Every structure is written in structure tokens, then in C-alpha cells.
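User: Round two. Same drill as before: sequence, then structure, for each protein.

Assistant: Same drill it is. First protein:
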Amino acid sequence: MSREVGTKKWGIGRLAIYLFLTVISFFSIFPFYWMFVMATSPSSAYNSIPPTIIPGDQLVANFKKVLEMIPFFQSMVNTLIVCLTVTIVVLFISSLAGFAFAKFKFPGKNILFFSILFTIVIPPQLGLIPQYLLVAKAGLLDHLFAAMILFFLNPLGIFLMRQYVNQSVPDELIEAAKLDGCSNFRIYRSVVLPIILPAFATLGIIVFTSVWGEFLWQFTVLRDPESYTIQVALASLNNTNKVDFGMLLSGVFWATVPLLIVFLIFNKLFISSIAEGSVK
């Protein structure tokens, strides 16, 4: 009798959890679905009452308008170059710094680490003008490198890597590698890197998506349409008095597709990293 009651309670509890997750998933996915609906509909559907919730047949037509207004594919290539370069550099610097902060002792280590973390709370808008002046004096305006340079040092990435290395890489393994004659960089490359690959996937997705969605700094330093990233190019579609929302959201929809592809490719490593961290 008690087993039947326990099974019934477990079934009701699981049903409630699944129902809750379904509702949350619906509210999370609906904005993307609505964006797709608007991308396939004429501009008039944006303010229609009742709202349009069924996809239309204007996806190709709206996207053709986007191609006529902005260098969409060139902007996508520029964005991919910026995001991939920043992601690779951040992973390299953050993992090296995280390894050093986690496994080495040197004077001022804690002060330096907390100084890096403190920069997270500083609003990026405060440094916009001096950073722009430095980039302008260096002659980097309208160069993609100018859109990358501010994001190479990632305090959150350093913190995440330090925590992951500290918990996942045993000190005994480091000492054994040193006894075998490995240099510090050889230990990083041959011992640490294979262990922290799940954290690489997590940090990589975070950095890639954040840089992909960055607008303010890129809008400030990129003025030539040939150097536009996709966010700056899409913003130029909104400069007219009468905005074609179907065209605008069609561009936004296709600009979102690479992010979904990146997440689908690395989601297993991303989930395994989260699961491993929760178990530890």
C-alpha cells in the first residue's frame, strides 16, 4: 500500500516538474518563433490585431530586401572572424591565467586576481571615450581588430577557468609531470588542456554569443559598411522613418541561425561541463 502511494506521489511530482518545464520552455522559445513569423510576413503584420501567429510566405522576399539594403553576407563573415578570433584568444588567455592562479604561488597573486575580477563591475560605457581615442590614435578605426581588442581579456573566463582547474586537476598530477621533466607550458598543454575541455566548451559558447551580440563598441569603431559586423549592419536598417519590420526581422532571424548551430554543435560538452560541476 505504501509503495503504491509513494509511486503515485512520485508520478504526480514528476508530472508537475515536466509541466513546469514545458511552460518555461514555451515562454523561452516563443520570442524566437514570433521573430520567425514576422520574418515570413509583410511589415503590416507587425501591428495587426489580433497578432499574427502563423508563418507567412514572405521569408525569401523579405530577405531579398535585406540583401539590397546591406552587405549581409560580408557582415556575417566579418562577425564570424571577430567572434572566432576573440573566442580562441579568450580561451587561450583565460585557461593559461586560470591555470597559473589555481596551481602556482607567486607574490601578489590574490591581489592581482581580485583586481581582475573587480573590472567586471565597471560599466563598459565609462571607458568608451578614452578607449575610442586610443584606438583612433593607433589608426585602427574601421579595422576588425578594433572590434576585437577590448574583449581579449575576459575576467569571467579567468574566474571560471581558475575554479575548474582548481577542482578538476589534482596537484599530484602536476607534481608527477614536473618530476618527469615537463615545463610549465608542457604541463598546461599535455595535462591540463585535456581535462578542462568541457569548461572550454562552456566558456567558448558564452564568449562567442556575447561577442556576436555586441553592438555599442562595434558601432563606435566601425564606420565603413565593408567592415560592418552583422549587428551594426542590421542597425542601419532602422535608420529610416518607415521601418519595414518584415525585412528587419528577416535579417535578425538569419543572423541568429549561426548561434543556434554553434550551440547544437557544442551542447553536449556544455551540458557535461554543467553536470560535472554540479556533481563536484
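Second protein:
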Amino acid sequence: MIGFINKITATPGSRAALLALVVTGAEDMPGCIAYIAAGDGSDPDVIWVSEVWVDKASQEASLRTELVSRAIEEATPLIAGFENIAVLEHLDVAVPPAARLVQS
């Protein structure tokens, strides 16, 4: 399992349009365990995206689908900045059942 936390800064005034493109196809991506996009409460131009995948190959494959490729092409002019804040990898350690938020 692998996860990503990304900060996307929209060009001024385009966050809503960019957010609509960022979530395009999210509900139908094979291998996607969770995909959450939200606006930043302190910056009207920032979107935070948290995503969890069964593996890196699934995430990379999603970027090559026709629907997502088209959304990326449309979104590119609306993006002022993109930062990959964190890459989260599953560790094989014993975790108490109460601490598990997502199970694959």
C-alpha cells in the first residue's frame, strides 16, 4: 500500500474549477483505496489531495487513463503550483485493531 499527500495551488479564482477536474474519475480508479480532495480553509487557492493505493503501479496506471489524462490536460493551465508533501508506505508491523483506519 502507498499513499500521497499533495498540495495543489490554483491560479487565483480558479480553485472550484480545478477541484472539479482533480476529482474526475476518482470513484472508478482500480486500485484506489481512498481519494480525498479538499479546499484549504486558510488559503482560497489551495487544494489538498490525500490518496491511498494498493500499490504504486495502480496509481501510475490511473494517470494514463483517457479520462484522467484529459482532466490533467484541462487542469494544467489552472495550476499555479504543485507540491508532493509526503509519500506514505505501508509498514509490516503489528497494529492494534483499534488503530486501523483503513484495511485493504
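DSSP finds three helices and four strands in the chain.

User: Perfect.
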